[in-house]
Design brief:
- With 140 residues, the protein is mainly α.
- The chain has seven helices and two strands; from the N terminus they run E-E-H-H-H-H-H-H-H.
- It has a two-stranded antiparallel ribbon with strand order 1-2.
- A hairpin with a 4-residue loop joins strand 1 and strand 2.
- Helix 1 crosses helix 2 and helix 1 crosses helix 3.
- The termini are far apart.
- The relative contact order is 0.06.
């Protein structure tokens, strides 16, 4: 048996192989996205292409969420960790970005408010549609 050193719980080999397979699937999609990016006549980020490919695979049911659930849950739980290199990169160019600080902050504030508003309105609309659907089923 293998052990997770963080919480000292035995992990079966089958479970370890499952996680390794999920990592392989995600990395293969990333590699495919990078390959497609190299073939395009215009510069386009391979990571964006990989996300689109992953979305299309999930949408077409060629890839089910269960195939990548543990790996994606891990990435979501540790998302803040992956922003550290980007933050350090921005700090490296602080002098170059200083003249643009006010416009950047303004853009961040405006887009944050717009994102909150769009999320709230979407949630309100979904709740309204669910209540309408539920009320229609009770009337039948």
């Amino acid at each position: 048996m293998w052990y997770n050193k963080d919480i000292l719980i035995p992990i079966e080999r089958r479970e370890c192989m499952k996680i390794i397979l999920q990592i392989g699937v995600v990395l293969a999609i990333c590699l495919l996205g990078e390959g497609v990016s190299l073939l395009l006549p215009i510069p386009f980020p391979g990571s964006v292409i990989a996300m689109i490919l992953l979305f299309l695979l999930l949408l077409s049911s060629l890839l089910r969420p269960e195939h990548i659930r543990q790996k994606s849950d891990f990435l979501l739980q540790n998302m803040a960790f992956f922003f550290i290199p980007a933050g350090v990169g921005i700090m490296e160019y602080a002098e170059d970005l200083l003249p643009f600080l006010l416009p950047l902050l303004l853009i961040c504030v405006i887009t944050t408010v717009l994102t909150f508003a769009a999320s709230a309105l979407t949630a309100k609309l979904v709740i309204h549609l669910q209540e309408k659907s539920h009320a229609g089923k009770e009337g039948e």
